[in-house]
Amino acid sequence: MKEKIRIASGQGFWGDLIDAPYYQVTEGDVDYLVMDYLAEVTMSILQKQKNKNPELGYAKDIPGLMERILPVCKEKNVKVITNGGGVNPEACANAILKVAEKLNIKKLKVAVVLGDNIKDRLDDLIETGAELKNMESGEAIEQFKDKFLSANVYFGAFPIVEALQKGADIVITGRTTDTGLTLAPMIYEFGWEKDDYNLLSAGTIAGHILECGAQSTGGNFLGDWQSVEDMANIGFPIAEAFPNGDVIITKHESLGGKVDLATVSEQLVYEIGDPKEYITPDCVADFTSIHLEDLGNNRVKVYGITGNKETEFYKVSCSYADGYSASGSLTYSWPQALTKAKAADKILRKRLEKLNLSFDEIRTEFVGYNACHGPLAVSIPEDEINEIMLRISVRSSDYQSVERFGKELAPLILTGPPSVTGFAGGRPKPREVVAYWPALIRKTLVEPKVEIMEL
């Protein structure tokens, strides 16, 4: 058993800093690089891509990234774990193996975790008793399932552990919990058992701190954000994990950013719901048990964590087509910028009403005045506002109504209030609305499968 392992966060979402994983493996020593690419809506995007091309459906940044970091990872024996396989982990693994072949890298084992994609099994699962009702609304699935674009089970850390036990250098998963990516190497290296709930909770909380990338090292920091040094070269977090469940959050000294009680605490309260019951497939962690100690020099110790047994269910993340939307904007300048923008909004709404178009929702924002805070925005004297962007959006199940809306915005330039600019890019085009459907499924109805692909 190792005395300590260093797990580096490389991505917080698909679209995060492309260079972050490279710096994590080159600016210091780490044992694992974990990269979280998936959000709920990402799965539907990837599924659409796979429907068009069966060789796609994964985070397309990965092959190019692996071309940069694979030689370093092989030299330093850094293992890579990512859920960037999306809805097509096998295609992602094949792309990585092609990169390895191009680089003349031998003896590379890439594991894929399969079984989370249940979209094609929905009817059978429902027949066997899986209700899959919407966790938030309680709605039944039957009238929605034919519109589903994706349906994926959140697996936890143990399939990744199995992959590591089989000698994988790289583990590619589909919809795995963000925290499971970090927890898995701790279980593997320290020999934790499935009923070590305090230890599993400690690893889960470490994963929660790492899952959003630089958000725990000073990025998007609501505290004294101006004290965060060299944000242009911000370092992503690293978890130094110990067999007893203690974890030290830190970063590479050569990179910017900040790790202290405030940055770590802020990330800890991000998206947790009930702090006493942070539910994952592996355990139920108690965030109220967390102890923090600032060790100085960008090092914060996280310890004393407790937790409880996992539930009988996996969470299922589904998405479905829910009509169409379009958005457009115009900018009005001083004087009376806000008055002009409000008048343009009223004019446009009257024209849409006259056309008898069908909309489920019409939403207007005055950017520079109330786009962030809505009705809570503080009134500003008209003469103090230099410019206002009118942004108006519509949503409807009727494609034709949304399309016609796109033809009504530009005419305001010459048939509405004066001093308008900022219309570019052509008419707003309808785009498909993707709605989220969270559900639960009994763990006995689905089973992860680990396969090894190698050169």
Write up this protein.
With 455 residues, the protein is an alpha+beta fold. The protein has two domains: 5-116 and 154-311, no CATH class; 319-437, Alpha-Beta Plaits (2-Layer Sandwich). The chain contains twelve helices and 19 strands. It has helices at residues 20-26, 40-52, 61-76, 89-102, 122-127, 158-165, 178-190, 197-210, 261-268, 337-354, 399-408, 412-415; strands at residues 5-11, 32-35, 79-82, 109-114, 148-153, 170-173, 238-241, 247-250, 278-279, 284-286, 291-294, 300-303, 306-308, 313-333, 361-367, 387-396, 420-421, 431-442, 449-454. The chain has a ten-stranded mixed beta sheet with strand order 11-12-8-7-1-2-3-6-4-19, with helices on both faces. Strand 9 (278-279) and strand 10 (284-286) form a beta hairpin. The longest helix has 18 residues, at 337-354. It is globular, with a radius of gyration of 25 Å. The two termini are 28 Å apart.
